[in-house]
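INFO batch 0412 | record 1 of 1 | parsing
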Amino acid sequence: IKYYEERLVKQPDDLDAVVRLSRTLVSQDRRKDARSRLEAGIKLAPSSVELRLEFIELLQSDQLFAEAISHYEQLDRIAPNDPDHIREWGFLILKAAEGATTKREGEAPADAAKQAAAIWRKLVAAKPKDAVVAAQVAGLMASADKSLLADAAEELRRAIELEPEVLTHREQLGEVLDSAGQKDESLAAWRSMAEEPRRNANNLAQLAEVLSRFGYRDETLTTIDAACELDRKSLELRFQQAELRRKWKQESPTRWC
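INFO prediction complete | emitting tokens
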């Protein structure tokens, strides 16, 4: 500690020394001193991303969630739409709501999930033509809270519109709809993976795996059989067909691949 303190007397703008000193202070349970050092460093270098992140981590460990959230807001002004910052910012909003629930022994604020979704949508707004970003945001929403499943589905439909030939978007949409209890809609999303003009042996095989994973026995078997009909020479499809029939304890089909 003494080394870093002396170093900062000579070079008060040495941000690396500020971070290292604050970490050392935290390790010795001198959290208030660590906070003072970080606050002083941020005052000297308000645009430092590293200092902001270090301070946010300290605030979170002290369960000062509202203050940490305010620093994410400032961080977004410094480094707009950084995917890592945006992701953690949204989850912190949910974590803060959970903390409030524990203290009150009541329900979390109803709009906390919507607030997190609004933060994550900043990524989509920054790259509206990027299907991968839309799918990633959908994944954040779906994993965060059940109340966001409809929002996740909306983002996945955006991804499908942008990249209609990418099957993972359709597969993910089906999973989200299934989680929401919309069985017919989820099946429709999955089936679209191998509908014209995407109907081919590989896509049917991928669809069969998805259907099997979610327990659709009969359709799994008819789908893998259809894949084999389209590509009779594929050993990989033959093995997949045998494995799926073994899983569902089905007798051999009339025609193998």
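INFO post-check: Confidence is low (pLDDT under 50) at residues 104-108.
INFO record closed
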